[in-house]
């Protein structure tokens, strides 16, 4: 099922001021944008050519050089030097540090820790007995004395003196606060209406009757300028593409076609003639020479092998021939039978 885009909404009616601004603005912007767009397209084509012809090969060469000069040496250094050295250092550390530390912890620190723990438990038990038998009774007595001498008088002083005085002071403060709030409210209302009449109403009138119409006019001009710039940029792109096609066609007619015709009519026949007259005979001669050289090398290797064998026979004699051993099963009556317990190997 195909999905269709919703139809565009009805275009809002435009005033004569918008149309009067749009036409000359688009003409001026088009005249100014066409050279910029053509220069931009020329720069884009030149940049692509530089990227494909210079920067990419240079980047590949730099990448290969970087790998050859840095990556591979560092990889070899890491694999064949640092990793074995690290393993050796780890083994030495384990032998010289870890094993003695484990032994010291197991046979020295652990017994000393157990002894200190027992001593601390004994001291803790003694302190607990002192706290339960001595410090706790003294604390209870001091607390009762403090309660009788300070807490009870202070509570009576707060309940019968400080609390009534505080309530009276709070009532006076609330009354004073209400009075000050009423005075501040009156002053604030007076300042509000004064500022509204002197500043706010003139500012609203200025915004409504001066700044808002000027802003709308500037918004129309800016919108039309943006639309004109986009329209001119698109038209300039079409003009630039047309000029580019014309220049490409001229370049093809002036340079590419003559070079291609010269290549087809001159260089290709000359290359075929050179290949038939020079390269093929040279290749056949090279194959014949290579075949002769290979045969000569083969015969030389055979001669050297025979000479070495003759020298070995003259110095050490003929090699001892292995004695043939008959490993077949015995035949006839000496063979093993199924009905007899005597075999051919144990029978006399």
UniProtKB/TrEMBL annotation:
What is the protein name given in its UniProt record? Uncharacterized protein
> Looking at the record, which segments are called Disordered?
319-348
Q: Which organism is it from?
A: Streptomyces yokosukanensis
Q: Which parts pass through the membrane?
A: 88-109, 183-207
Can you tell which superkingdom this protein's organism belongs to?
Answer: Bacteria
| UniProt keyword annotations, A-Z | Membrane, Transmembrane, Transmembrane helix
Polar residues compositional bias, start-end: 338-348
């Amino acid at each position: 099922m195909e999905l269709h885009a919703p139809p565009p909404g009805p275009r809002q009616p435009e005033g004569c001021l918008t149309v009067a601004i749009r036409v000359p603005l688009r003409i001026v912007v088009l005249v100014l944008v066409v050279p910029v767009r053509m220069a931009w397209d020329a720069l884009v084509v030149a940049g692509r050519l530089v990227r494909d012809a210079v920067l990419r090969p240079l980047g590949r060469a730099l990448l290969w050089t970087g790998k050859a000069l840095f990556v591979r040496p560092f990889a070899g250094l890491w694999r064949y030097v640092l990793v074995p050295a690290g393993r050796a250092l780890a083994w030495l550390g384990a032998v010289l540090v870890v094993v003695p530390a484990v032994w010291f912890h197991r046979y020295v620190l652990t017994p000393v820790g157990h002894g200190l723990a027992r001593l601390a438990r004994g001291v803790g038990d003694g302190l607990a007995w002192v706290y339960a038998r001595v410090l706790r009774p003294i604390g209870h007595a001091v607390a009762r004395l403090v309660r009788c001498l300070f807490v009870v008088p202070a509570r009576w002083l707060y309940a019968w003196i400080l609390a009534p005085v505080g309530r009276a002071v709070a009532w006076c403060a609330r009354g004073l606060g209400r009075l000050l709030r009423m005075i501040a409210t009156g002053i604030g209302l007076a300042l509000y209406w004064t500022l509204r009449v002197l500043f706010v109403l003139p500012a609203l009138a200025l915004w409504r009757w001066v700044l808002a119409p000027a802003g709308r006019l500037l918004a129309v001009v800016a919108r039309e300028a943006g639309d004109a710039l986009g329209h001119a940029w698109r038209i300039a792109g079409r003009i630039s593409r047309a000029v580019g096609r014309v220049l490409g066609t001229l370049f093809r007619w002036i340079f590419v076609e003559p070079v291609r015709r010269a290549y087809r009519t001159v260089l290709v026949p000359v290359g075929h003639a050179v290949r038939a007259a020079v390269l093929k005979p040279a290749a056949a001669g090279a194959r014949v020479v290579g075949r002769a050289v290979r045969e000569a090398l083969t015969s030389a290797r055979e001669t050297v092998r025979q000479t070495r064998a003759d020298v070995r026979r003259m110095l050490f004699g003929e090699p001892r021939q292995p004695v043939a051993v008959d490993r077949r099963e015995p035949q006839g009556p000496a063979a093993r039978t199924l009905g007899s317990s005597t075999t051919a190997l144990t029978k006399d």
